[in-house]
Structures are given as structure tokens and as C-alpha cells.
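User: Fold this; C-alpha cells only.

Assistant: Input:
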Amino acid sequence: MSIKFAILTVSDRSSSGMREDRSGPVLQQAVINYGWEVTQTGIVPDEISEIKERLRYWSDSGKINVILTTGGTGFSPRDVTPEATKEILDRNASGLAEAMRAGSLTITPHAMLSRAVAGIRKKTLIINFPGSPKAALENFRIIAPVLPHAVQLLENDSRAEENHQRPLAA
């Protein structure tokens, strides 16, 4: 299944050129390794208005299935990615963020400090990832197996039902 991704790095330092973006490229390579396509990338500062503007633009275009954000999900006063994301979502997809935290907790206790959120705007799934390249990749690998089915459901694809497991007979 062809899935079209956009990747948004949220970082004051990377957006100003003070630091190279490493998380965005790591996520981009992971998406490509799964056989999917990255059609848009970008970097914005930790500003709610700029994050919202980019998320709205990409999701409202109808050309992106999944937007991954990296950065701005921690406890720092400038970490506002979850707040910006929540403001533009139509529906929550909290199971994805819960799964990422649960999976990450097997690696580090710092996972419980993540404030990442996931949700849906129109037909686009938006998922926040940590800013650390290592953590972003680990979290992506946790949720990647369900992304094709999620996109099928969002697209109202009739084949989506084929992917449901039948319950075991009692």
C-alpha cells in the first residue's frame, strides 16, 4: 500500500540554522525503508502558530496520509507541539501515543515524560514524536505496523475490513 507522509521538525535551533536537523532525516529514511513515500518535509520553530499553520496546510491539501512531527513534546517551556497539534485535530487517536509510551518504557523510564499526541484531521493522521533521533526511530517502529490499516480506514477503503482479525470461537 502506498502511503504518503509529511515530516515536520519542530525546533528553534534547527529552524534558525544553529543546529542540523537529525530527527527529520532519520524518520524520512525509516518511512522509505518501509516502502512508503515522503512527499513533504519542513522545519519550524517552537511556535504554536507556525506548527498549526503547517499541519493545517498539509492535512487540508488532501495529498498527505500521515504527518509525523518530531520535537517539542517534552517538559521545556518551549515544547508546544502537543498543544498546537491538539488545536487543529478533529479526533484523537490516543492509542498510538499510548503504545509509543508503553513501548518506550521498556527502553527508558524517560518515556513517561513524553507529552506526544496523535489524532486525525480530515483524512490525515498526525503523530507527534520525540526530538531525539534515536527515540523518534524507536517510536516510529512501534506504530509502523498499524499505519497501513489506519490509512485504509481513514480513506474508507473497502479492503480495510479484510485486515480485521476474526475473534476466536469460545
